[in-house]
Design a protein that fits this description.
alpha+beta
Length: about 110
Amino acid sequence: CKSMAAYVVKLDITSLTCRLCDAKIEELDELIDHLAKEHGKHYDREIKGHIMPFRFEKNREKIKCVLCSNEFNNFKVLFEHMNVHFKNHVCEICGSGFINRRTLLTHGYRHLT
């Protein structure tokens, strides 16, 4: 069984809507707060480190990072970029941060050459 830390879920927040009351919501944090305040639904905030929110821009084919507004052509590049924002796992050699252990281990091979 793999650890939860190895997983990252991509979450499209282009059109966030509360499924309980159909409220339109812009950001993931707003949805979490709305669910708690309006509906008494709570969720483990630690899981947020395993969610990679993204947003498609209207009339564009690019994927937008919701943390800094950079745009990317595909998920692979967005995923690599997310290492800038998430320091869940840090390389002891160079200090680079990674979103999960798997990407840290892959990065480690660069230091072997």
